[in-house]
Amino acid sequence: MCTRIAALLAVLLVGASAAAQPYPSKPIKLVVGYPPGGSGDFLTRIMADELAKDLGVAVVADNRPGAGGNIANEVVAKAPADGYTVLNATHFAVNKALYKSIAYDADKDFAAVSRVAVGPTVVCVNNNLPVANLKELIAYAQANPGKLFNASAGYGSAPHLASVLFESVAGVKFTSVQFKGGGPAAQSLLAGDTQVMFATSPTVMGFVRAGRMRALAVTTRHASPAVPGIPGAEEAGLPGYDFTFWFGLFVPAGTPAPVVKRLHEAAVKGLAKPEVREKIALQGMDAAPSASPEAFEAEIRAEAPMWDRLVRESGARVE
């Protein structure tokens, strides 16, 4: 009997010790729904390094590409709500509107931590297209409805939705060709199989600087310091057009508030470093941490109708 009591006490003491361990006490997994090489992957690896420095544990980037980020979203939605599985993602309203069914609840399965970075896309054209600026592109597209092929990075991607909004504001119509990411879309533009492309800056700026394609504008009203030398849409001749995309950190719903706060603090500290902000700027984005998890959550809710409208206006639907 004494032996059993002693064993039970030992188990209770071990359990109490584990429960008393401060967060974090083991490695953290930072999941992203995109393959290596793109903006999402780049930001994930930067944040993994910065979170690890501040939290004192290993933070491992985990690429789970596929289904427009839905695979990664599902992994995190179904993970324990303990702060050891974190997601780097864009707005969930996009996939909620785009996909006929998803295996998680876009409105209820996640808790916001902080936005990481925000940036515009870049409007590029094939060198053989006889347009020198955005006004000429619009005029050409209006005179040739549906005859310009737009290389898109896939349904629901930031470049796809940027082009949808552009068509609406400019009164033009492209024939969009969906590729599995920005890389294949850029290769199509270079080959001349397509003539127009809306792209994240890292995907195309190397080609632009090498003179292999032309950048006409960024998709914000005014020029972006993160993408120097390219005019904003308003300066280029399309007032009223303004499009940016962002990535942000999320955890499973139900994660304790002190854990969410600790992750937020670590993210903000990392994103405040000049060298980190410079690295993000080189990718054509601006570090943009949220003031608090609550502020990020409020922004997400406020933006949801806009993303939903863009997807529905595009007519895109994935079964």
Task: Explain this structure.
This protein is α/β, with parallel strands linked by helices and 319 residues long. The protein contains 12 helices and 11 strands. Strands 2-1-3-10-4-11 form a 6-stranded mixed β-sheet, sandwiched between helices. Strands 7-6-8-5-9 form a 5-stranded mixed β-sheet. β1 (28-32), α2 and β2 (59-63) form a beta-alpha-beta unit. α2 packs across α10 (257-271) and α4 runs parallel beside α12 (293-314). The longest helix is centred in the C-terminal third of the chain and has 22 residues, at 293-314. It starts with a helix and ends in a 5-residue tail after the last helix.
Give the class from helix and strand content and strand pairing. alpha/beta
Number of domains: 2
CATH level-four homologous superfamily name of the largest domain: Bordetella uptake gene, domain 1
Global Rg: 22 Å
For this structure, the CATH topology of the largest domain is D-Maltodextrin-Binding Protein, domain 2
Sum up the overall morphology in one term: globular
Low-confidence stretches: 6-19
CATH class category of the largest domain = Alpha Beta
Query: How much β-strand is present in the residues?
Result: 15-25%
CATH architecture of the largest domain: 3-Layer(aba) Sandwich
Tally of separate helices = 12
SSE string, helix = H, strand = E? HEHEHEHEEHEHEHEHEHEHHEH
Average pLDDT works out at 90
Number of strands: 11
Helix content: 40-55%
Strand count, sense and barrel status of the largest sheet are: 6 strands, mixed
Give a quick precis of the structure.
The protein is of the alpha/beta class and 319 residues long. The chain contains twelve helices and eleven strands.
